[in-house]
Amino acid sequence: MTMINNTSINKDDSSLVMAHMWVAFVSLFVGGLMGLLQTLVRSGTLTLPFGIGYYQILTVHGVILALVLTTFFIIGFQFSLMSKTVGMSNKQRDSAWFGFWIMLFGTVTTAVTILLGKASVLYTFYAPLKAYPTFYIGLALVVVGSWIGCFTNFRQLYVWKKKHKGEKSPLLAFMVVINMLLWFIATLGVAATVLIQFIPWSLGMVDTINVLVSRTLFWYFGHPLVYFWLLPAYMAWYAIIPKIIGGKIFSDSLARLSFVLFLMFSIPVGFHHQLTEPGIDPVWKFIQVVLTFMVIIPSLLTAFSMFATFEITGRKKGYTGLFGWIKGLPWKDVRFFAPMVGMIAFIPAGTGGIINASNQMNQVVHNTIWVTGHFHLTVGTTVILTFFGISYWLIPALTGRKLTAKINTLGLIQTIVWAFGMSIMSGSMHIAGLLGAPRRSSYSTYGGTEQASEWIGYQIGQAIGGSILFIGIILMVYIFINMVFLAPKGHEEFPLAEVSDDAEPTPMFLENWKLWIGITVALILFAYTIPFIDIIQHSPPGSPGFDMLIR
Amino acid sequence: MHLHKYEKLWLIFGVSSLIVFLTVLGIGAFYKGMHPPSHLATIDPQNVEAHEAFKEENLGLRQLDEDKYIVSVIASAFNYNLGKDEDGASVNNIRIPVGSTVVFQVTTTDVVHGFQLAGTNVNMMVEPGYISSLETEFNKPGTYTLLCNEYCGTGHHYMAATVEVYQP
């Protein structure tokens, strides 16, 4: 009954995933080009033609990379994992396609609004700057489309569990469901502010908006958003890379435990993005800072598991000595090398994150370009290099082609180009930020102060780094096109790792969904109920919209 | 659930460092009173002049005591209103003697702005409906750039002034 084909998952599912990948890679190119233009403008060497605004391209850059590229890649990748581990029925595939088209329609609606210059409000769209209503409506559709993806994934695991009573769910399916639960709970906040506050206000149905409420709802979503980006990278680290390096998963239960902890501690923490804001009680800010730091525990678990896998695998291959096992890792295999460089970048990236969230210390770096440098290491290096690392086997596995030795080498070069360009760009951003240079600002001499003149050199550094990164993007887009159209036909492995024989059996309580969701909701209610009521009770008069300031 | 012996050591070390770290932050915040700026006072954003601090004549620098000053600022796109000088021109530079304690109180009449004095710890969000406030001590002479670090519209990057800390 099986049709002969080279794809690693069935053809219909492959088409679904590839549709998501197309949107992701087109976004990578467009968003990357905008990033390049920004660094050139900021260095003082370029003026944008045709009346295009700096803040317009900054809005495109943020929306298309942080919201569109990530969401489409992640949902597509997760569908491939679900298809591989628990399968996908025709009905489920239809609903997945339905979600995809809604997200795409929303994306196009928002993109057109930005390109017409009516929504230069950046991807955080802080009120009371007011965009044209279709900007918010488009974003709402992206979220709604992604919810269809969520419920499709939930349904897939549910159906599998019913057929496999008493068995633990496949590790990757468990991880996908955790990430989608996290996404669903988090997006309730942004959906609430967009549907209840922004859309009626931008349509003129109400005159004013409650600014602090909208910001609080946004950041209730904004922090778990970054974990929604990170967890798919962790899926690859935990359950795919061990296979690529010829090893096994160190411990199934620790992997699940760390995902559960991420679910619990990534949401009740949004105030650490609002530390320098008026109107929020500093005691609650501190409580959320403490909760923020709880994610360090699953991060430590992950670091340990990864390096344990690396060391055990290296030693099994016969490499000895304290660090000799490092030689046993396949450094010339881009499927390992790219995510590994991403992992190494997570050391400075995570350290910077700890600094940012450190309560009063946030004042030193808040809204300086240090923060931009920080998230270009986290999402722009750790996450994206892991996503590239996934693409090198996923795309050929979906298109029924092979990752050739040539493309493997080009991928190694791409990774090095990326790491080099990012070190220069992010490094310059970190230093300039410590000297006080602000983020989200076009080229300015600030009235000719000496301080501002010191920043220019670092802004030129950012342009150099940004240009190198753009070369990296061109390479990656070429690699994508090669893997879709040009590479020879063949069978590319979909690498799923097995759990080590030495690992202890996984206790069943790790699949007690009611318990984990219950604790997550309880923590959110604890962290937000009192301060949120406080914010509403002590609200100042609302703000009318300001749409002329962005034209 | 089983944990490897080294993993236990690793986690004990990590979690203990975390506890020490958070304790230090907590002591800084609650015992030393170094909270991040979290002023709770509200104001009508469309009528800020009704508030004593933001009346035309009270804007800019005022001396309260021998070495204590207050600076009241109205932020709006794309300008910080620091009051007027004797000739009636807008003030764009504030001069403060070194060693002074200064309270900044800032509000906005339109959108969200930032209030950052580059090279110092003066850095806070300014949001419509709220008064942002923080106190600082200037111990190092020099010219500091006051700038808006939250996007507020097309002219956002032109929103700037200077604070000059001088040796009297």
UniProtKB/TrEMBL annotation, chain B:
Which CDD domains did the record assign?
ba3_CcO_II_C
Function, in words = Subunits I and II form the functional core of the enzyme complex. Electrons originating in cytochrome c are transferred via heme a and Cu(A) to the binuclear center formed by heme a3 and Cu(B).
Q: TM spans, by residue?
A: 9-31
Q: Does the keyword Secreted apply?
A: no
Q: Which UniProt keywords apply?
A: Copper, Membrane, Metal-binding, Transmembrane, Transmembrane helix
Show the Gene3D superfamilies listed in the entry.
Cupredoxins - blue copper proteins
Which reactions does this protein catalyse? 4 Fe(II)-[cytochrome c] + O2 + 8 H(+)(in) = 4 Fe(III)-[cytochrome c] + 2 H2O + 4 H(+)(out)
Which parts of the chain are coiled coil?
A: none
Looking at the record, the residues that make up the Cytochrome oxidase subunit II copper A binding domain are 66-168
Name this polypeptide is given: Cytochrome aa3 subunit 2
**Can you say where in the cell this protein is located?**
Cell envelope
Where does the protein principally reside?
other
